[in-house]
Structure formats: structure tokens, C-alpha cells
């Protein structure tokens, strides 16, 4: 399984919001792009998808931008990645018309392990790790 650039940047965007949306103020894409050294245009595409999924809300105008719709504790890495990637399974679904093969157990266990990791880490965890790394 390989996480796309879009998935990785979505996670960075959400982490940036978690760290910088003081008092639930809106954060501009421009400021996120500058801090993360990423393209504004690409981040706009990503934040649009996150907005459609209800993870962020937007406001127009001089005080506008984006903010998370929930607290950082309420987002998991898995939720964000699944929105961007569509799924995290290491292989596509098995063919039901093929005979059973025990290697399917490997893929099942690997998918469970991946889900266990990404669903146990919140944005709040990432923000704390970032803060600790910057000390």
C-alpha cells in the first residue's frame, strides 16, 4: 500500500489547522501553504474534498479561511486518509470466483494492522508530537 501525495498533504493540512487555529479562528490556505511549503492550488483541491466530507468549514472575506469542524481529538489519521485515498487495504478485494488461497489471510491481517495504527492516532496526538519535536 502506498499513500498518495494527496493523502499525505491532507494530513499535513489538517495538522496545520490543529496547531494554528487558535480560538477556533479561520486559517488561510496561503498561510498553510507557506508553512508547509506546498502549492496553494493543490491545497485548495484537497481542502475542497475535506470540506465536502465535513472535516473542515470555510468562511469568505478578510477574516475568512478554513477551520476544523471538530476538535483535534475527534479526528483520526485513518479517517482523513480514507477520505483522500478511498481505502487503505494493501490489496484489492479478492475475486469471489477464484478458489480460496491462504495468502488472503496475510492481506486481511495486514489491513487490520494498518487500520489499527491509523485509527488509534488522532490529530491531537500528531499536534503533540510536532510540539515535542520542536522543543
TrEMBL record:
Cellular component terms (Gene Ontology): cytosol
MF terms (GO), sorted A to Z: DNA binding; DNA-binding transcription factor activity
Pfam family for this entry, one: Rrf2
Residues of the signal peptide: none
Top-level taxon in the UniProt lineage: Bacteria
The entry's keywords: DNA-binding
InterPro entries reported in the protein's UniProt record: Tscrpt_reg_Rrf2 (IPR000944), WH-like_DNA-bd_sf (IPR036388), WH_DNA-bd_sf (IPR036390)
Protein name in the entry: Transcriptional regulator, BadM/Rrf2 family
Species this chain originates from: Megasphaera paucivorans
Amino acid at each position: 500500500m502506498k499513500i498518495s501525495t494527496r493523502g499525505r498533504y491532507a494530513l499535513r493540512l489538517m495538522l496545520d489547522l490543529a496547531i494554528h487555529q487558535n480560538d477556533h479562528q479561520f486559517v488561510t490556505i496561503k498561510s498553510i501553504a507557506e508553512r508547509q511549503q506546498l502549492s496553494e492550488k493543490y491545497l485548495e483541491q484537497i481542502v475542497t474534498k475535506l470540506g465536502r466530507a465535513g472535516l473542515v468549514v470555510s468562511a469568505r472575506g478578510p477574516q475568512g479561511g478554513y477551520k476544523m469542524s471538530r476538535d483535534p481529538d475527534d479526528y483520526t489519521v485513518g479517517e482523513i486518509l480514507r477520505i483522500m485515498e478511498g481505502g487503505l487495504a494493501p490489496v484489492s478485494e479478492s475475486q469471489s470466483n477464484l478458489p480460496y488461497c491462504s495468502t488472503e489471510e496475510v492481506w486481511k491481517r495486514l489491513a487490520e494492522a494498518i487500520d489499527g495504527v491509523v485509527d488509534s492516532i488522532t490529530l491531537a496526538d500528531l499536534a503533540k508530537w510536532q510540539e515535542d519535536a520542536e522543543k
